[in-house]
């Protein structure tokens, strides 16, 4: 199954938000076979390569309840993600995951985000753990912010 994580937020003087290529995603997973939920957030690191039968994945774990081997791969982000312009309070897809035996239940925003402002300046390694971020851009003498960040997880075709 493929799932996508999308976000929306109130944006002030921000033209784009995107996860950096090395972003580690922190998620809670549900076993598709038995419904067992991981008791804690697990980390899915795009730099981690795990060899399993017939595949290389970014995360693999055996379900504690049904003992089924499940896995997750982060699909390569679309190159267009860095060049898009997003609107305040509109849903925008940030990442796509290929899940074998799992479903994403919960997501933590965490670190390693890039923020682009209308002048083209990019802020890297931004921490969105709280779902909010603000800064003052001296070059344009404007306040920039992300407020009330939300996410949703969608099943994809």
From TrEMBL:
PANTHER family in alphabetical order: CXXC MOTIF CONTAINING ZINC BINDING PROTEIN
Keyword flag Phosphoprotein: no
Family: Belongs to the UPF0587 family.
Keywords: Metal-binding, Zinc
GO molecular function: zinc ion binding
Organism expressing this protein natively: Tieghemostelium lacteum (Slime mold)
Record's protein name: DUF866 family protein
